[in-house]
Amino acid sequence: MQIEDLAFNTGKRISIELGTQLKIRIDGVDMSFTSNLIGMDPHKYLVIDAPISMLNYARHKLFQGSKIIVGYLYKGSAFGFRSELIEDIYTPLKLLFVEYPEIIEEQNLRGQRIDCVLPIKIKINDEESRGVIVDINEEGCRYLAKKAEQDKELSSVHIDEQVTLKCNFPQTEGEYEISGKIKYIRMDEKQMILGVIYDEIEPEIKDIISQYMRSITE
Fold first, then answer.
1. Distance, CA of 80 to CA of 70 (rounded, Å)
2. Residues 54 and 120 in one domain
3. What residue spans of 98-183 are helical by DSSP H?
4. Alpha-carbon span 169 to 4, nearest angstrom
5. Which of 7, 9, 88, 108 is surrounded by the most beta carbons within 10 Å?
6. How many C-beta atoms surround the C-beta of residue 174 within 10 A?
7. At residue 112, what are phi and psi to the nearest 5 degrees?
8. Which ranges of 119-218 would DSSP assign to H, the alpha helix?
9. How confident is the model at residue 47 (pLDDT cuts 50, 70, 90)?
10. Cis omega before residue 92 (within 30°)?
11. pTM greater than the 0.70 cutoff
12. Is the pLDDT of residue 115 over 90?
């Protein structure tokens, strides 16, 4: 080992504490995962736990050099950074070692899509299908339906088609309807993802969405 390998790093580390909850996005995977920071060597690497949901759904995308995006909250502000997977270990603990970020971005939550799992029904041409909203803000959302849950009506959607979302938000009573247009479609053998931009929505519903976003980022 070279002597310089033992040199202490005296630079500042990023503003994050051990145990901080992280939102992880993996390049090529259409969902995010919740993890935790469990260790670090400043300016070298971060150590995060690998949740079972990530290993079940995206293990084939975890290899040295995999691109990831990490988001987290610190003292009321949202931060994010891009990184790469250095190493993954699954015995005795399931751990991911990722590169220490060089650039941290502070993010404005207003207008930003917030990751979530919100079961909903989507109505297209009088036909309803069930799925989940996987990210949301006050202007639109992203809807995911598993292939087994898709019907012919859902599979034949097109850009700018009108849809109605029927949502039950936590800590509210009743079902809320939000109309919008499809602006993004992605489909594979397992699932379909629709990006929806709302039509003009009532102030009450907009406020409920804002409250819901705050509740899942606090």
1. 5
2. no
3. 152-155
4. 55
5. 88
6. 6
7. -85, 140
8. 152-155, 203-217
9. very high
10. yes
11. no
12. no
Nearest to residue 27, comparing CAs of 54, 67, 62, 59?
A: 67
Element at 196 (helix H, strand E): strand 191-198
Structure token pair of residue 189: 């053998």
- Cβ-based neighbours of 191, under 8 Å, separated by 6 or more: 30, 144, 145, 146, 147
Q: Give the residue ranges of DSSP H helices in 90-218.
A: 152-155, 203-217
Q: What angle do CA 164, 168, 170 make, to 5 degrees?
A: 145
What single-letter amino acid sits at 12?
Answer: K
| Angle, CA of 113, 29 and 97, to the nearest 5° | 95
Question: Are β-strands 77-89 and 95-99 bridged in parallel, bridged antiparallel, or unpaired?
Answer: antiparallel
Residues 52-69: what's their mean pLDDT? 91
Domain span at residue 145?
A: 114-217
Helices (H), 139-202: 152-155
The structure tokens listed for 61 are 């995308």
pLDDT: which is higher, 188 or 200: 200
Among 72, 107, 142, the domain-final residue is 107
State the Cα–Cα distance between residues 35 and 21, nearest whole angstrom.
Answer: 6
Same domain, 22 and 39: yes
C-alpha dist (Å) from residue 30 to 73, 189, 199: 22, 13, 25
Distance (Å, whole) CA 47 – CA 41: 8
Q: Which amino acid is at 68?
A: I
